[in-house]
Design brief:
140 residues, alpha+beta, Aldehyde Oxidoreductase, domain 3, five-stranded antiparallel beta sheet, four-stranded mixed beta sheet, 9 strands, elongated, Molybdenum cofactor biosynthesis protein MoaE
Length: 140
């Protein structure tokens, strides 16, 4: 099990930046996930999002990554979540999981993304095209 990078940042993120440190010559598969800000939610137009995190969020995302890696000993992984103001098209969550074989990479990446969204104290404030806004909590 190897966790390479975890974090919460206000800077732009991408799987392209994470992948070179995760993938090694032993890896026959790399699965990436980019959580991209889309222009709609539940039929409503979205103009932008603001993500906020609890001070414990960096430790929580590291713990989630370690738990996923422990369940999948052959994987190498990185995961970073962005906070602050994001526009449509920006990446909010970037994850890279590599392993000798594809199946383990796919399974571990799915678990990693689901558990970050479920367990890490990050909240999003959505702003809609009609001028309305709403808060959505990752911990519901």
């Amino acid at each position: 099990m190897t966790v390479i990078t975890t974090g919460i940042t206000e800077s732009p993120i991408s799987v392209t930046e994470l992948e070179p440190e995760v993938v090694t010559a032993e890896c026959g598969a790399a699965v990436t996930f980019s959580g991209i800000i889309r222009d709609h939610d539940s039929g409503r137009g979205v103009t932008r999002l603001v993500y906020e995190s609890h001070p414990l969020a960096p430790a929580q995302i590291a713990e989630v990554a370690a738990e996923v890696a422990a369940r999948h000993p052959a994987v190498r992984l990185s995961v970073v979540h962005r906070v602050g103001e994001l526009s449509v098209g920006d990446v909010a969550l970037a994850a890279v999981v590599a392993s000798p074989h594809r199946r383990e990479s796919f399974v571990a990446c799915g678990e990693l993304v689901d558990e970050v969204k479920e367990k890490v104290a990050i909240w999003k404030h959505q702003f809609f095209t009609d001028g309305d806004d709403e808060w959505v909590g990752a911990l519901e």
